[in-house]
């Protein structure tokens, strides 16, 4: 399939299913920045995967698996989630109580609720997405909805339905969804009170589901994924520049440098995942990258202070982009700190998050994250190693100014 034809089909599929997938992620993950990042990653893979376009549930299955892994690893994250302004997770005030009640619902039950009550998937398709069975899907969704209602009411527990199997009331309600809304009707059964709680939970979930992704948020996410997807270029052009600090690799898409890396070993996969998802094919091309290579050689020789070749960020989150933009404004021969960057991007308590964003800088040297150190005077970290960071700063005339971290002292960052 030709690239332009593939992109055209992708845009059509994105228009048909993209908002549902985005809403799925925004309700599956607690941090909207995480949700947006994961949507971008999946969308780029979606653009290249014919199977994903032919099976409407494939991106949802990928989203669920990745989101579950992110939640599992979240307790061991190198930095805490960014504190967004406003109410929980930056959502609007009217949704804040619903978000609080939604928070304790486990991710497996969230996904079952989203697929059955939100996206209205058939039970067997929902089960395929979650790697489960239709019976378990109904049970998980029903229990999750009741947990959601319990959180809203502030109650310790909701009485179980006597003589009714878990999931059965939701199944009955769901199977007659063509006749009336899922939120309508009551079962004249021993579980009537249980059913009343379930009805109320469904109504609250529908309000949350409808309000969680405003039109403005979806338009922003859509603009970002379409802006970062090249129209017709799927081959990543690469070139290696010899520097006093070792090999420095560059990657280009559509005439724009999108990634760089120090010290790549033979056969090592050095291209960021977001770029690789768009351009799985690589080709050496010294001619196309010669202007960028020449400017870098001049920089490493001490004859250049700023770069003029075209470059851009691909696949970075809104937060990481703002951090890297602030970093790019630190001039040659000057220093900034993680604390200063956190203040500049409006997240004064997110120094670790700033360090994590800089540590994933896809364009080191070009975007000078080596100029950012700890506010205590410690040099901090660097993805290519502290020795290269020290030598880059010495090249700019600001080497030897740093204090080593105290033994056992907590660092602001893991690796920048």
Description:
The protein has 416 residues and is α/β, with parallel strands linked by helices. It has 2 domains: 3-223, no CATH class; 235-395, Arc Repressor Mutant, subunit A (Orthogonal Bundle). The chain has 17 helices and 6 strands. The protein has helices spanning 3-28, 32-48, 50-54, 58-73, 96-102, 107-118, 123-130, 134-153, 168-175, 192-211, 215-227, 273-278, 290-300, 318-328, 338-344, 351-359, 386-395; strands at 235-243, 246-253, 256-262, 281-284, 336-337, 372-373. A 4-stranded mixed beta sheet has the order 3-2-1-4. The chain has a two-stranded parallel sheet with strand order 5-6. Strand 1 (235-243) and strand 2 form a beta hairpin. Helix 7 crosses helix 8 and helix 8 (134-153) crosses helix 10 (192-211). The radius of gyration is 25 Å and the shape is elongated.
Poorly predicted regions are 75-90, 404-415
3D shape: elongated
SSE order, one letter for each helix or strand? HHHHHHHHHHHEEEHEHHEHHEH
> What does the radius of gyration come to?
25 Å
Structural class: alpha/beta
Subunit arrangement of the protein: single chain
Task: Kindly summarize this structure in a few lines.
The protein has helices spanning 3-28, 32-48, 50-54, 58-73, 96-102, 107-118, 123-130, 134-153, 168-175, 192-211, 215-227, 273-278, 290-300, 318-328, 338-344, 351-359, 386-395, and strands spanning 235-243, 246-253, 256-262, 281-284, 336-337, 372-373. The chain is of the alpha/beta class and 416 residues long.
